[in-house]
């Protein structure tokens, strides 16, 4: 069993739709990251969370520490949001990061 | 500002040849550095991490090795590549002074033929 589970694995949405990607983890963490990987492979960090909620533009990330669950929401989705979104957690017992396998999002115009 | 450079971006190597991927970091000191591999259709797999010069921890047994000769330099190597070494390799940096922000290099596509 993976330490980090993401759902769905693949997601296709119409432009303008509200999108939710979920992440559950089974280890103790010091922080959770949401990452975006573009088709060329490059990865950028979207959010780092240790509690509560963060918002950046049309992106919102939430985390529930008790339930070991996080969600990434995209409001008014756009084709340029098409990418792979990866949930990653940093273990609170060492320097390791654990990654989900990613959610491949395609937004259709 | 924090930047992380990784090269080469792509390479095609024959089986049995050596490998050297290099990663350098600017804008921070004493970062935690990581090497990950991403095989096609799979998540990121941690290969090595380093908390300081000369300090390397290996997560997965393999024919790869890593070295950290300088504070901001992290090198991934192999003496003899296998076909199964093909994949996308990412260097990452954890900057703890700014609240555990993680940065990734541009990535290196390795094809072993």
For the termini of chain B, the CA-CA separation is: 38 Å
Counting helices, strands and paired strands, the structural category of chain A is mainly beta
The chain-level mean pLDDT of chain B equals: 88
The radius of gyration over CA of chain B amounts to 13 Å
Overall SS class of chain B: mainly beta
**SSE string of chain B:** EEEEEEEEEEE
Low-confidence sequence ranges of chain B: none
Mean pLDDT of chain A: 92
Helical proportion of chain B? under 10%
What percent of residues of chain A are in strands? over 45%
Shape of chain B: globular
N-to-C series of helices and strands of chain A: EEEEEEEEEEE
Give the termini separation of chain A: 36 Å
Query: Count of DSSP helices of chain A?
Result: 0
Explain this structure to me?
The complex is a heterodimer of chains A (109) and B (113). Chain A is 0% helix and 61% strand. Chain A is built from no helices and eleven strands. Chain A has strands at 4-7, 10-14, 19-25, 29-37, 43-49, 52-56, 59-64, 69-74, 83-91, 97-99, 103-108. By secondary structure, chain B is mostly beta strands. Helices cover 0% and strands 60% of the residues of chain B. In chain B, strands 2, 4, 5, 6, 9, 10 and 11 form a seven-stranded mixed beta sheet that branches. A four-stranded antiparallel beta sheet of chain B has the order 1-3-8-7, with no helix packed on it. In chain B, a hairpin with a 5-residue loop joins strand 9 and strand 10 (101-104). The N and C termini of chain B lie far apart (38 Å). The A-B interface holds A 2, 30-31, 33, 35, 40-45, 48, 86, 88, 90, 95-97, 99-102 and B 32, 34, 36, 38, 42-44, 46, 49, 51, 57, 59, 88, 90, 92, 94, 99-104, 106-107, 109.
Q: Which characteristics define this entry?
A:
heterodimer; A: 109 residues; mainly beta; six-stranded mixed β-sheet; five-stranded antiparallel β-sheet; 61% strand; globular; B: 113 residues; seven-stranded mixed β-sheet; four-stranded antiparallel β-sheet; 11 strands; 0% helix
